[in-house]
Amino acid sequence: MASRADASDIPIRPERPDLPAPSATRRGQWHEVTMTRQTTSPTPQHTPTTTPTTAMPATTTDKAPAGGKEGGLACMAVAMLLLPVGDAFAKVLTGTLDPVVVTMWRFVAQALCLVPVALLLRHRLRGAMFSPIVALSGGLVMITLSCLIGALSVMPIATAIGIFFVEPLILTLLAGPLLGEVVGPRRMTAVAVGFLGAFVVIRPGMSGFGWATVLPLLSALSYALNMIVLRRAGRTRSSLTVQCGAAAYAACGMIAVTLVLQGAGLVRLAPGEMPVTSWLTVAAAGAFAAASFVLIAEAFKRAEAGALAPLQYLEIVGATAAGYVIFGDFPDALTWLGIAIILGSGLYTQRRERRRAPRGRRLLWARGARAGRR
């Protein structure tokens, strides 16, 4: 980020009785205006003795990384294909551990993996990492991942992720009451069609997954709320700062929740009984998550959100491939129909939002923090 120099860094001209002191404008630019002394005539004549000069504070600017937009698109594509791999590791762990315990270890591993990343990229850290608004983001991330891993424990990855992708539609609905943005009838119609697609995927009473089909919806709602929180937090913080802080809060929160549930006899936390393979799986889940987050942050540093948004749907491709290769799961025809409706509606609402909203108020910018979901 650009940094402004102190006033002491600005060269000061020797004082002259016929020159006023430099004045500062709202934009932080320093202007020196020179005038001659006033004459004794009724109408004073002010003639500049020198050309007005503007001394700008010393600033540093972040140069666009080599590769530009193409590099950003590549980073986003790879990240979207890696995210489901982390989900697959979590699903493997739910075979022997309670989903709550899996979520806790996932957050712990993720936070530990982000420590060296934060040290390596410390020049990108900006703003307070630990604050109430970042803690709120961490709490919403806890809910998001807990619900998603709970769903993954009983349903195919592609199905859970497909339902989760109603999130852009939920965010569109929340934009009016929480952000004061106007949502037109076309986008509202697209939202309704998207939820119809979710109904096709869920098929209440027919899908065989029971109550678990509600979990991806709760995960999407929590994530959409987190996007709104991140919109405010990101005004004074970099995305890496928010991500690291939220991961730390989420890890601590999940440890506390797990200990409380263990005390109530609802879950069993026995790290000493976990085999080496389980620890390696936990480490892999955290590593893939951290790698995805770094790639996503790099993608949004290189390219605009509007160009990157459609690539998020590559996650469905990765989820389907991971589910089929590792678990032998493949969605049926009705599930694919519902997923197609959800994705089509999401793409349409994002396209309409980009065309109608001013650049500074686009909801899509918040997707730069998409890594907060995992």
Write the layout of secondary structure elements.
Blueprint: E1 23-24, E2 30-32, E3 53-55, H1 68-93, H2 99-120, H3 132-152, H4 157-164, H5 167-179, H6 185-202, H7 214-233, H8 239-263, H9 276-302, H10 305-308, H11 314-327, H12 333-356
Antiparallel strand pairs: 1-2, 2-3
Walk me through this protein's architecture.
- The chain is mainly α.
- It is built from twelve helices and three strands; from the N terminus they run E-E-E-H-H-H-H-H-H-H-H-H-H-H-H.
- The protein has a three-stranded antiparallel beta sheet with strand order 1-2-3, with no helix packed on it.
Shape designation = globular
Can you write the helix and strand succession as a string? EEEHHHHHHHHHHHH
Oligomer: single chain
Number of domains: 2
Model regions low in confidence, pLDDT < 50 over at least 5 residues: 1-44, 46-64, 359-372
Please give the number of β-strands: 3
Through-space gap between termini: 26 Å
> How are strands sequenced across the largest beta sheet?
1-2-3
Give the % helix: 55-70%
Structural class: mainly alpha
For the largest beta-sheet, the strand count, sense and barrel status come to: 3 strands, antiparallel
Rounded average pLDDT: 77
Strand content: under 5%
* Annotation field: number of helices: 12
Rg, alpha carbons: 26 Å
